[in-house]
Amino acid sequence: MTYPEALQELVEEFQAVDDKRERLEMLFELADEVIELPADNWSEHTRVRGCQSEAHVSVVLDDGRIQFLSAADARMVQGLMGILTIALDGLTPAQAVLISPAFAEEMGLLNTLTPSRSNGFRNMYDKVMNEIRQSMEG
Amino acid sequence: MIGLNLRDQFPILQRKVNGYPLVYLDNAATTQKPQVVLDAMNDYYSKSNANVHRAVHTLAGEATEGYESCRAKLKQRFNASKVIITSGTTEAINLVAHAWGRANLNKGDAVVLTEMEHHSDIVPWQMLAEERGVELRYVPVTPHFTLDMDAFEHALEGAALVCVVHTSNVLGVRNPLEDIIRLSHQAGAKVLIDAAQGVPHATIDFEAFGADFMAFSAHKMCGPTGIGALLVESSTFETMQPFMGGGDMIETVTTEGSTYQTNEHKFEAGTPRIAEAIGWTAALEWMESFDLDAEHDRLIAIASWVAQSLRDLGMQVYGRHEADDAAVVSFLHPTINSEDIAHLLDARGFAVRTGHHCAQPLLTRLGISGTVRASFYVYNTREEAEGFVAEIGEIVEKFA
Q: How many beta-carbon pairs below 8 A join chains A and B?
């Protein structure tokens, strides 16, 4: 699987680290990449369902380019949001929908990413991609 | 000491997780299986696999004997005369709601539940309440993690059934069941005990206990998943109507109608869980190889030490860890997210549970949405507990 350059670099960085704890700590640091969705803007529309933690996402288009805003209470979810921020920020919707969610598995962060599994990350990814697709239709 | 000796009998405890020895502390969710259980199930499929109760051939006889030996073992261990084999605690409670509840409860009857119940002992009653207009009354949990017994006595007035959890899967708190059963019967109510977390930690004499129903699962006491039991008091058993229809539960079937078995088979429609029953028998026999009471004392001492150590590290601990409680330690850190704690622990081989533990009303009462839960069983050692506390200490130091 290949990804946009910034995401590909991240995948390779994570793959170079054997220890899962170290990978988690790297992920936690990526929480700093999140463009914060202010709590005042949280709603049922922004909520990620099936997440054990409180998680909200929003996609806005600025001159045809994606800006991904998000918020969560778990550092791990914030880190995954940070990765999505790096992956999506500045892409066009047509470029963005080509990104597979498999990167989280390839980075050694989640064990499985089957669509049928109640998986907060998968739900977040699906929600973001649905919003991007809707923006293309709109 | 026994924790160390027992460990060799559990193949899974030899494995590593993320490069570290597995420290399995999710026993309130399910326990691991000793080699004798794995062997018994493998032997059955290798040598005796057949359907039960019907054919006359040798394999069918062996399968039937194996399946029924589980019932016999349960009757002996729990001193119960009626043992219905189910898929687990959840099905056992649903069976009471369908087979007894629908035959005996009507509009205006009251069922007493508690806020401490697992969803499996709430949802079936909510479904019945919606269908039949049955009133549900919930006994609150106090700030000391116990049932409000004054509220309980008040709720009993005119109640037909009391459903109460033996031991909380979140708090480890064992409820005052002897008082609950006595008071319920004095008020004319039947009593259902959800003993899923109770039977792994204590041997219960069902007849002496005096409850009318008791539900539990094999997999929380080193047996297989997918099988459990409902113990029923004899006269109450006679008032139950069939729940599921199909093979094994009938006496005769004609196009005009059917008649039913009168024994436990009446509630065991379809091909039962034969290999699982044989595995459970092996687990029950295996549990007789050590002193469960002594093990319980050892485990609650470990849990109590872990709870205090976690408090010393700044955790809020939910539970009291008294002598009869289960070795379950639920906790939260004021600033580190519980999911993050669980992922960091997993990276070092520690398996714990996070979330609402299927007990959302209890967590709502406690004002929280979830906890981290470490739960100990007979193969866990003091050394594992010390490693766990040290790991938590490292996490707090680094991430708080």
A: 37
